[in-house]
Amino acid sequence: MQETFSGVWGLFLSAFISSTIAPGGSEAVLAYMVSQGHYNVSYLVVLAAIGNTLGAITTWGLGLLAAKKFPVANLLPENKQKALNVVKKRGIWVLFFSWLPIIGDAFCFAGGWLKLPLVSSCLIILAGKLSRYAVIAWLFV
């Protein structure tokens, strides 16, 4: 039981960390756990998606905090200014792609910076994360 508990919490923490500005490998952790066949796959997918979404919302919150203190041109590196422009142009639905490496974190940061609605942002981010983890799980079942 302890092994199961620590395994699923490891997946959750890996997913959370992977979706903040720190690098991580939650996809590999999920793939390994699914391939072992010891866990309910749906549970793992939902757990990873929730952890990853909470990490993305943390990045969104950092964007919100940064927007209150600093002008865009002085704070953001060029790649995040590009993400800001994409989110401005395409709107909140861009957050569905927050699972993309590198640019996904920038989308979340830009969403917070632009003060996009929190609940809508969470739901759209969660939908993208669930989709990505479901595909990964399907590949390794």
Can you count the helices?
Answer: 7
Cα-to-Cα separation, first versus last residue = 22 Å
Query: Which residues sit in consecutive blocks of at least 5 with pLDDT less than 50?
Result: none
* Number of structurally distinct domains: 1
What is the general shape? elongated
* Helix share bin: over 70%
* Residue share in β-strands: under 5%
Report the radius of gyration as a whole number of Å. 16 Å
Strands, total number: 0
Q: Structural class per helix/strand content? A: mainly alpha
SSE arrangement, N to C: HHHHHHH
Average pLDDT figure: 87
Largest sheet: none
Fold and architecture overview:
The protein is mostly helical and 141 residues long. It has one domain. It is 77% helix and 0% strand. The protein has helices at 2-18, 26-36, 41-69, 72-75, 78-90, 103-113, 118-140. The radius of gyration is 16 Å and the shape is elongated. The mean pLDDT is 87.
